From TrEMBL:
<protein>
    <recommendedName>
        <fullName>Transcriptional regulator</fullName>
    </recommendedName>
</protein>
<dbReference type="Pfam" id="PF13711">
    <property type="entry name" value="DUF4160"/>
</dbReference>
<dbReference type="InterPro" id="IPR025427">
    <property type="entry name" value="DUF4160"/>
</dbReference>
Amino acid sequence: MGLLSKCIFAITTHHTSMCSLGKDEAIISINTLGVIEGKLPPRIMGMVSEWASMHQDELLADWEKSKNLEPLEKIAPLP
């Protein structure tokens, strides 16, 4: 199963991450880890929430880098 998470910085100035799986996608706040828009299957949303909570500081750091058009750091997947 492939789950793709990518930061969107060209569209919004809010700290958000977009997660996609097939036709399902959600925009999630990096600050609160709450869903802003969209929907993922419950099991996938749980995995995304777990991963994002483990790497929230890294996500915020990458967000800041993206605003300056700097290369992003890789973030480890769930173990």
